[in-house]
Design brief:
Order of helices and strands: HHHHHEEHHHHHHHHHHHH
Distance between the termini: 18 Å
Number of strands: 2
Shape: globular
CATH class: Mainly Alpha
Oligomer: single chain
CATH superfamily: Farnesyl Diphosphate Synthase
Strand order of the largest sheet: 1-2
CATH architecture: Orthogonal Bundle
């Protein structure tokens, strides 16, 4: 099942989510409307809200609250992107200028805050303390992940374990919550809830690993950002960590300097090191291992087209080129 088939399975639900997102973005403050619409409509994959919809249906849910929660998840994700781009001083995302590049850091941060607060307004309307518990914990973990990533920046001694910890906190946690909410809505037993939450966690990890590989193995047109952006920001991602473990002394020295100083002055040497040590293949295999664990976690779910679609999401996460 390819990504178009997966989206088609919940097409009506997805349209309802899009309509709700645009409705709940409205504010009496014109800048919030303008900036919010820009970032929401800038071509994101909407995988996290899609995961909420599929998980809810796979868990037998027949109501409408999954629409509200899918929109909440997208608002939380969008808020993190706005804040991320300010912290990273990014100028390009999804092939477009970042909001902070257009409106400035102050506006981007404050509209991110608006999206966070609006998401909590919306989750309250679902009327579930369990939902509130999951999402409030999730936003805390994501914030911790942002700080952990900041601590790793410009540190060439970052280990693979520390790198993976950032992924678990910063990226995988929101995927985990997205899947788990579907089981909560479907009133599934703890075994199913834990299983589908694990699916989300492994899916999110695989997704981020491929993102980090694409930073060195794709084109700006495909991935929607400049090649080497992570290196320019001094982020020691897995391709760099692997290349430092297996590269020559000269290559290791160049990579360490690039991480410590940021910028792309050493990009050619770094790319050569990544290629010669097969760091992209190593990262892709790590992602495939996570996708395999994600698929294994779905074994407890009853067979359905929605479970097949979740399998398809795991395959998409590692086979994509953007």
């Amino acid at each position: 099942m390819d990504i178009d088939d997966i989206r088609g399975l919940v097409h009506a639900d997805s349209e309802a989510v899009d309509h709700l997102i645009m409705g709940r973005l409205r504010s009496d403050v014109a800048l919030i409307n303008e900036l919010g619409r820009y970032i929401i409509n800038s071509g994101g994959k909407r995988l996290r809200p899609l995961l909420v919809l599929l998980a809810a249906r796979a868990c037998g849910y027949q109501g409408k609250a999954h629409i509200e929660l899918a929109a909440v998840i997208e608002f939380i994700h969008t808020a993190t992107l706005l804040h991320d781009d300010v912290v990273d001083a990014s100028e390009l995302r999804r092939g477009n200028q970042t909001a902070n590049a257009i409106w400035g850091n102050e506006a981007a941060v404050l509209v991110g805050d608006f999206l966070y607060s609006r998401s909590f307004e919306m989750m309250v309307s679902v009327g579930s303390m369990r939902v509130m518990e999951i999402l409030s914990h999730t936003t805390n973990i994501i914030a911790e992940g942002e700080v952990l990533q900041l601590l790793n920046c410009h540190d060439p001694d970052t280990s693979e374990d520390r790198y993976r910890e950032v992924i678990r906190y910063k990226t995988a946690k929101l995927f985990e919550a997205s899947a788990q909410l579907g089981a909560v809505l479907g009133k599934q037993p703890a075994l199913i809830e834990d299983s589908i939450a694990r699916f989300g966690m492994h899916l999110g990890t695989a997704f981020q690993l491929i993102d980090d590989a694409l930073d060195y193995g794709s084109s700006a047109g495909d991935i929607g950002k400049n090649i080497g952006d992570d290196l320019a920001e001094g982020k020691p991602t897995l391709p760099l960590i692997h290349a430092m473990r297996h590269g020559s002394q000269e290559q290791v020295k160049a990579i360490r300097a690039a991480i410590e100083n940021g910028g792309l002055g050493q990009i050619d040497t770094v790319l050569e090191a990544i290629e010669s040590t097969q760091a992209i293949a190593y990262t892709a295999q790590a992602a495939q291992n996570e996708a395999d664990l994600a698929i294994k976690a779905l074994a407890e779910l009853p067979a359905s087209p929605y479970r097949e679609a979740l399998y398809g999401l795991a395959e998409f996460s590692v086979n994509r080129s953007y």
